[in-house]
Design a protein that fits this description.
Layout: E1 7-10, H1 13-19, E2 28-31, H2 33-36, H3 41-53, E3 56-59, H4 73-85, E4 90-94, E5 97-100, E6 103-109, H5 115-132, E7 136-139, H6 153-164, E8 167-171, H7 172-181, H8 186-192, E9 198-203, E10 207-209, E11 214-216, H9 225-235, E12 242-244, H10 253-271
Parallel strand pairs: 1-2, 1-12, 2-3, 3-4, 4-7, 7-8, 8-9, 9-12
Antiparallel strand pairs: 5-6, 10-11
Helix pairs in contact: 1-3, 5-6, 9-10
Amino acid sequence: MINIEGCGLGLRSDFLLDVKKSNFQPDWWEVTPENWMHMPKLFEKAFEEAVFSRPTIAHGLSLSIGSVDKLNRKFVKQVKEFLDRYNIEYYSEHLSFSSFDGKQSYELLPVPMTKKMVNHISDRVKEVEDIIQRNLILENATYYYVPYSEMREVDFINEVLEKSGAKMLLDVNNVFVNSVNHTFKARKFIDEIDKSKVAYMHMAGHFHDEDSNMKIDSHGMPINSGTWKLLEYTLKQINAPVMIERDNNIPPLETLADEYKQMKKIVKRVQNG
């Protein structure tokens, strides 16, 4: 658990300049350092007003914690500078890799779910934490194929969290998507995940690809009813802050505010029993 409460929203440049004139403010923001470390001057003032007016979490894209490449310490130091500059206490990333042979793909690629990878990621987590001087939070990622795996996803995640000491960003949509694509029960995954490690949660949208007959984690659609129901089930077991993440086909802020209010109602309903 982290020292942030309520419901959050991912801050995006698409609607940043509308935040101040809007009547809507989430309980907290989540920002992606890679998108803001070198932002245009046009956005600087509005960004600072937003993140200094609400608690803010940073959620990265290119740490590549599961890569066999040497850790990009220069980049991690840049992330620390960003966190310090904006007084951001919490930094989360994906349990995946995105770089190989020194090149950054900016794609969240799946890691083999093996004991060897548990040890490798745990060592890298500690190396990152030594630099950023913060506890790292790792998110369960979507995957469509994973090579050389010898463990179930939930067991792999639990072992990484236990050995590394990292906290977890539980993406409810990712659980839903993976459960359909890989034919396991989403609620059983929630039952078995180490709830003491969950710092906060994500909600997002996905779509069904007819050609492959798979759920695709697009972050570009409204949240569907199945994912809302899984959130409600999860909230009955895990009392953690939750937010909406929208990265593609970003609608006006007022549309996101409506979805945010729907999430807020679900949270309050569960809390009130």
